[in-house]
């Protein structure tokens, strides 16, 4: 009985760790995409400002 509970707990823990690991990967990918978008926006803004300043 005790061993079955322990196995069940271990399986549940492994499943939760797997889900947590996947969530961390998804979050890292989302953060990277967000930073890329922000960098693209900043570069576009500087490009337009540069044209205005020296135009």
Distance between the termini: 80 Å
Question: From N to C, what is the helix and strand string?
Answer: H
Summarize the biggest pleated sheet: none
Q: Which value, in Å, is the CA radius of gyration?
A: 24 Å
Query: What form results from the Cα inertia axes?
Result: rod-shaped
Residues in helix, %? over 70%
Number of helices: 1
Mean pLDDT score = 86
Number of strands: 0
Low-confidence stretches: none
Topology, please?
Blueprint: H1 2-54
Structure description:
The structure is a single chain. By secondary structure, this protein is mainly alpha-helical. Helix content is 96%, strand content 0%. The protein contains 1 helix and no strands. The radius of gyration is 24 Å and the shape is rod-shaped. The termini are far apart.
Task: Supply database-style keywords.
rod-shaped, 55 residues, single chain, mainly alpha
How would you briefly describe this protein structure?
The protein has 55 residues and is an all-alpha fold. It has one helix at residues 2-54. The model has no long low-confidence stretch (mean pLDDT 86).
């Amino acid at each position: 009985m005790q061993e079955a509970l322990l196995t069940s707990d271990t399986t549940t823990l492994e499943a939760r760790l797997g889900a947590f690991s996947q969530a961390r990967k998804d979050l890292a990918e989302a953060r990277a995409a967000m930073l890329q978008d922000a960098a693209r926006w900043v570069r576009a803004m500087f490009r337009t400002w540069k044209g205005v300043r020296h135009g």
